[in-house]
Specification:
117 residues, 2 domains
Length: 117
């Protein structure tokens, strides 16, 4: 569907096709990114436009490498587990921050919730 160049690519393992398949971007968003791509990678343009995150690109690149036979199922599972653990850690930290803020609000003190990305 989409490749590195500004012309449609029929490769089902292209990053743009994988991102569309996952539902992380639309075909229209990819078309907009292709229109401004110049000599940059499509994934980088999609990130700059705010359509996806670096983590999503990393996941799509892993999927692409697996589909192309350059990484094993075990490597995919290991990377997915590491990603899920990192995400769990972020969720736990956010929950702690919310709990601390809620406790402070109950005491009459205002404590803003910490923002993490």
């Amino acid at each position: 569907m989409f490749g590195r160049k500004k012309s449609p690519d029929l490769d089902p393992t292209s990053i743009a096709n994988i991102l569309v398949k996952y539902g992380w971007v639309t075909k229209e968003q990819v078309e907009r990114a292709l229109a401004t791509q110049q000599d940059r990678l499509i994934g980088q343009v999609l990130i700059e436009l705010g359509y996806i995150t670096q983590a999503q690109i990393d996941h799509a690149l892993l999927h692409q490498a697996h589909k192309r036979g350059t990484v094993s199922n075990a490597e995919v599972a290991k990377a997915t587990l590491a990603n899920n653990m990192a995400l769990s850690d972020k969720i736990i930290e956010a929950a702690k921050d919310i709990g601390e803020s809620a406790a402070a609000m109950g005491s009459g003190k205002y404590v803003p919730i910490k923002r993490t990305t």
